[in-house]
Amino acid sequence: MTTMNDTSNAARFREFKMPDVGEGLTEAEILKWYVQPGDTVTDGQVVCEVETAKAAVELPIPFDGVVHELRFPEGTTVDVGQVIIAVDVAPGSGDAAPVPEPAAQPEPEPEAPKGRQPVLVGYGVAETSTKRRARKGTGTAVPAAAAAIQGEMNGHGAAAVRESRPLAKPPVRKLAKDLGIDLATVVPTGEGGIITREDVHAAATPVPAQAPAPVAAEAVPVPEAPVAVVPGMRETRIPVKGVRKAIAQAMVGSAFTAPHVTEFVTVDVTRTMKLVAELKEDKDMAGVRVNPLLIIAKALLVAIKRNPEVNAAWDEANQEIVQKHYVNLGIAAATPRGLIVPNIKDAHEQTLPQLAASLGELVSTAREGKTSPAAMAGGTVTITNVGVFGVDTGTPILNPGESAILAVGAIKLQPWVHKGKVKPRQVTTLALSFDHRLVDGELGSKVLADVAAILEQPKRLITWA
Predict the structure, then answer these.
(1) Which of 89, 91, 259, 459: disulfide with 436, CB 3.0–4.6 Å?
(2) Is the pLDDT of residue 417 over 50?
(3) Model's pTM, two decimal places?
(4) 245 dihedral zone (left: phi>0; alpha: psi -120 to 50; beta)
C-alpha cells in the first residue's frame, strides 16, 4: 500500500524519454551529455545531443529541477520511448527516492505542437522548430554549440532555445531575416536592449564587390575528424551508423529502384558571372550573400516553371506519378556526419533577395551542424555543386523520392568561340540526372537546355519568369 509520503516522494522525480525526433525513426545515439547528476536544469535547457539516421539533434529538458540520474552513457544507441534522464523536480524536500526503471513497452510521448519556419555533393522543412527563451535559473551553462536547438519532437515540433537570444519584435526579426542579418551581431539601441528596425538597417551594409568566383557555387565542405591510426596498423574499421548509414541505404535504394539517365551540357556563363558581380553592389541585395549558386538555383526554378512535369515523384505502391505544384529546392551539403540535403520550402515563391537569404541560412545552419530532420524532408528537386572541389561534372544519384538532380561543375576560364572569334570565357558543365520512369529524354533535355540558356543569357530570368 502506498502512503501519502511515498506518493509525494515519488512525485518529486520526472523522467524524460527519448523522443521521435525524425519522422518515425525508432532509435537515436547519444552523442554528448551537457549535464551531469547534481546539475541544476531549467525548462528548455539543452541536456544532450543525439544522432538519428537523418541528423544530429539537441534535446531540451521540458521541466526544472536537479539531474538525478543519466540512464545511458555517451555512444549508446537508445530506442525511442526509453527513459534517458531522471530529474528531481522538488530538490531538498526529503530523501531521494529510487527512480523507477523504464517500462518494457514505453508509452509514446504526447505530440508536441507544430511550429513554422522557413534538407554539396548530391544525395537527403515544411515545418521547422519553434523558438522559446529559456527561463533564468542557476542551471549549468550550455556550450555555445548547444545553444540553438533544432529538430522535431515526436516528428512534429520542437523548442529551439538560445541562452542569450537577442531581443527584438517579430516585425524586426522578419526584417533581419529578409536582409540576411544575424540578430546576434546587431548592437541594440532600444530601451531594455531591444533591437530596433534602425539597428537592423545599420547592420545591413552592402557586400563589397569581388571578382567572379572560380567555382560554380557556395559549398560547405567540412572535413570529418581524422581517425586515429596506430603505427603498424594495416587497416582501420569505422562503424557505419547514423547519418552515414542512412545515406548508404538511401543511395543503394535510389540507384537500384529508379532508372537513372544523365545528360550533360557545357555552357558559357560569362554573363552570369558579370551579373553576380553587379548584384553584389546592388543595394537591394545588401545583407545577403550573392554567388553563382543563387543564379543557378533561380534558373532551375524558372526551368521547372516552364516544364512542370519534371517536378514529380514516382509512387510505386499505387503505380502513380505524383505531380508536385510546389518546389522544395534541395542543396546538397557536406557535413562532419556525412552528406545531407536540406531544402528550401516553396522556393518557387521566393524573390531573388529572399532566395539569397534562404540559401545563406541553409548553408550557415549546415555548417554549424544544426540542420533539423524536418529541414531534410519533402524535397522535390536538388542541386549539387561538385565544382567547389575543382571537378568538371559528375553523374549524381537522385535523392530518394525526387525525379531530378542538377550537378554543377567548376566555372573555369577557357577558350570559347564567341561572336566568331576564340576568346577566353567563363565556362562550366552541367549534368542533369532524372528518373526515366516519369521524365523522358525530351523533357529532361528541355529542362537542362533551359537552365543552360538562362545561365548564358541571364536576362531570360525576366523574359521567361
Answers:
(1) 259
(2) yes
(3) 0.56
(4) alpha
